[in-house]
Write a structure and sequence with these properties.
Number of domains: 2
Oligomer: single chain
Distance between the termini: 26 Å
Number of strands: 12
Helix content: 25-40%
Strand order of the largest sheet: 5-8-9-10-11-12
Strand content: 15-25%
Largest sheet: 6 strands, parallel
């Protein structure tokens, strides 16, 4: 087993490789489809092109009409082309969240199902791993214990996390648990899940939060949720901007989001203040809405369906 205990960075652009006389392309995000179409419209040196990925499943018509291009279909090993550490032990999800590509039925269709076998790798990309049976999870956790580290990469559903899950996760010394926080209504379940993991010895630094913002809620609710995680729980949350499932612009602000109070300044303020991957905080002069822990839990989510957040992978 590899001694590396840190996950590799995920590519932000489509992944390309050659198999025989075929150019293969995997497209994870819909906002990269315009650049892919422009690339494929140039004179080419390959005879055939095969293109797939979640973005193509969501918008198959966007690349229609390109000569020599086969659109969609499954190809074994594609996930490892994108990230050689990544694997899945289940497909689909038991939830049908309005913000998630899985909920449309166009991506990983066929309902939730457990795989009989999967590549033995430490970065788990299951959309809702904790929906699996204890028998399946025993096999998953046994493999991860042999690695000595893992990254539950897609956001664990805090409503499903129980003492069994927490105990097994705590037995993996280098586990990274990312807990979904899609709505302030999830705060009690989120804190309960956090305490179960932390009380069993999972270091606070190895527990993080995926925080979906911009989905049917405005800036004030986003600051409430993010500040609650930072001040009350004591962890660094990771805000994730909601993109419509047919978005062709990265971090674009829709008319619906503007009606909720979002604009470019509000978006930059939230993302710049909390998003640790950008380095030091640069927007403290904005004086944003900063709720106290006492009123944070009383702030209701506005029209958000609570659920396990999945990245548009």
């Amino acid at each position: 087993m590899s001694r590396r205990r840190r996950p590799l960075a995920w590519p932000k652009r489509p992944v390309r490789w050659i198999e025989g006389d075929t150019l293969c392309i995997s497209v994870p995000f819909t906002w990269t489809l315009p650049s892919v179409r422009a690339f494929l419209s140039r004179p080419v040196l390959w005879r055939k092109v095969r293109i797939g990925g979640p973005a193509v499943d969501l918008m198959p018509g966007y690349l229609a009409g390109l000569p020599g291009v086969t659109i969609g279909g499954d190809m074994p090993g594609v996930l490892q082309r994108v990230n050689p550490q990544a694997t899945r032990s289940t497909l689909g999800c038991v939830n049908h969240c309005g913000f998630c590509a899985i909920g449309t039925g166009k991506v990983e269709s066929g309902g939730f199902r457990e795989l009989t076998d999967w590549p033995d790798l430490p970065v788990l990309c299951d959309n809702n791993l904790l929906a699996a049976s204890p028998e399946h999870l025993d096999r998953v956790f046994d493999r991860l214990e042999r690695w000595g580290w893992c990254d539950f990469n897609q956001g664990l559903d805090v409503r499903l996390l129980n003492e069994y899950h927490a105990e097994r996760i705590a037995r993996i010394p280098g586990s990274i648990s990312r807990l979904a926080m899609d709505s302030m209504s999830l705060a009690p379940a989120w804190e309960r899940a956090f305490r179960m993991l932390h009380d069993r010895g999972v270091a606070k630094a190895r527990i993080s939060a995926y925080v979906l913002i911009g989905f049917k809620t405005g800036p004030e609710e986003a600051w409430t949720r993010l500040t609650w995680l930072e001040k009350t729980i004591g962890i660094d949350p990771c805000p994730m901007w909601f993109h419509p499932l047919d978005a062709l612009t990265y971090n674009g602000i829709t008319a619906e989001q503007r009606a909720l109070g979002w604009n470019e300044e509000e978006q930059r303020a939230v993302m710049g203040f909390f998003y640790k991957h950008r380095g030091e905080r640069r927007y403290t002069a904005r004086k944003p809405f900063r709720p106290t822990p006492a009123n944070a839990l009383r702030t209701a989510a506005v029209g958000t369906k609570a659920g396990c957040h999945s990245k548009p992978d």
